[in-house]
Backbone:
């Protein structure tokens, strides 16, 4: 029953601007995104590893400017014309498929008053594409790079993840986790999930004592 209650109360992930923590690891990328609409050629590639905040920052921009969200694999090239003059956001530009669509969107952003923000884990020059004209466009795109998160960002991420699960961690829990965990948001997510499940299973609050037991049973979640 406890586990069901937690699932019922869990909140949707938040992409609010106030939940995005600006630190040394992401400040340059944030400034590049905030420079809109003065992007060279109307397009910016936002690059970062999993969990670096790429999607969060992209969603913040999309909400701010009222961008059309496009999934390349599901979007018909014939529909590109209706996006002329509008800002467009693509979360995963390197996911494969939609090369002609991406080519036309980049050209459109350069020639009209529209804008294009494209997310990816690798720089656009490394994306696997077969269309020669798209290859040349990608090689020339301005790029903003998000670095892996530091401790300040991870602390904010842990707080956010706990809040989304309606969990109030004890005051000594965050320093305990930050001292032991790998510097990555995916691991923060795995840790919070494991603590949430253990608390629901045992009918206990999320605390340092619970985290210690989870660590002992789940070494794969943490650094040696």
Residues:
């Amino acid at each position: 029953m406890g586990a069901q209650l937690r699932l019922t109360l869990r909140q949707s992930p938040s992409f609010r601007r106030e939940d995005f923590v600006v630190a040394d690891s992401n400040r340059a990328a944030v400034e590049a995104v905030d420079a809109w609409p003065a992007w060279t050629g109307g397009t910016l590639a936002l690059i970062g590893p999993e969990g670096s905040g790429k999607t969060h920052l992209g969603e913040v921009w999309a909400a701010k400017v009222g961008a059309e969200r496009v999934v390349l694999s599901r979007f018909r090239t014939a529909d590109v014309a209706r996006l002329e003059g509008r800002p467009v956001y693509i979360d995963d530009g390197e996911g494969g498929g939609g090369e002609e669509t991406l080519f036309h969107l980049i050209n459109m952003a350069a020639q009209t008053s529209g804008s294009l923000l494209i997310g990816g884990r690798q720089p656009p020059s490394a994306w696997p594409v077969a269309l020669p004209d798209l290859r040349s466009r990608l090689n020339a795109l301005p790029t903003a790079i998000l670095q892996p998160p530091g401790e300040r960002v991870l602390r904010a991420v842990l707080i956010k993840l706990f809040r989304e699960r309606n969990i109030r961690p004890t005051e000594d829990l965050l320093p305990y986790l930050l001292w032991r965990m790998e510097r990555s948001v995916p691991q923060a997510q795995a840790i919070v999930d494991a603590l949430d499940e253990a608390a629901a299973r045992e009918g206990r609050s999320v605390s340092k004592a619970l985290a210690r037991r989870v660590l002992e049973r789940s070494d794969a979640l943490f650094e040696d």
Observations:
- The chain has two domains: 26-145, 149-221.
